[in-house]
């Protein structure tokens, strides 16, 4: 039995799907204006005064708080099935196809939000672990209902659904410091740059 773990943004994709999705959902100008209004938060993040997790939650909350879950999920699925393939790295897709040809278990483990990751993964017969949004009575609160699936949290979430000890070989693919703990699970030493660049 073999397991392949893939980060999503920057590993499978050539662009950040969060930015891509927000622009798809509300338009480029509203996105730019939102970033201007959020500039104190962004500056605080870049100065290390607030965490990546908190900055991301504030960003997502600003644009999507108050949306109905059904409306959000509808546009997320439309984005996922019609737009994501445009930013998937061809070499990354070749690697997924390699693992599929070998009947390996494949899981995308992403800090991005599940509603716009899952439909693409499902259409490609790939499992997904991702950050989830909180809602109350079908309305998005602007907060996350799970921890941001980044860094050590990736391994925590993987272990919730995977018995790692049952796999003879584990492959892991990532491109950033937020993937390091997941990459350490790998028993096969293949680098992101070697595969995808």
How does this model look, in words?
- Strands 3-2-1-6 form a 4-stranded parallel β-sheet, sandwiched between helices. Strands 4-5 form a two-stranded antiparallel sheet.
- It is globular.
- Helices cover 49% and strands 17% of the residues.
- α1 (17-26) packs across α2 (28-37) and α5 crosses α7.
- The protein is an alpha/beta fold.
- It has helices spanning 17-26, 28-37, 39-46, 52-64, 69-82, 90-101, 114-123, 152-161, 180-183, 192-196, and strands at 2-6, 105-113, 127-131, 133-136, 139-144, 169-173.
Please outline what is shown here.
This protein is an alpha/beta fold.
Mean pLDDT over the residues: 92
The strands making up the biggest β-sheet line up spatially as 3-2-1-6
C-alpha Rg (nearest Å): 17 Å
| Fraction of residues in H or I helices | 40-55%
Q: How many alpha or pi helices?
A: 10
**How far apart are the termini?**
28 Å
User: Quick one: overall form?
Assistant: globular
Q: How many strands in all?
A: 6
Please give the largest β-sheet. 4 strands, parallel
Which class best fits the helix and strand makeup?
A: alpha/beta
**Order of secondary-structure elements:** EHHHHHHEHEEEHEHH
Strand content: 15-25%
Low-confidence stretches: none
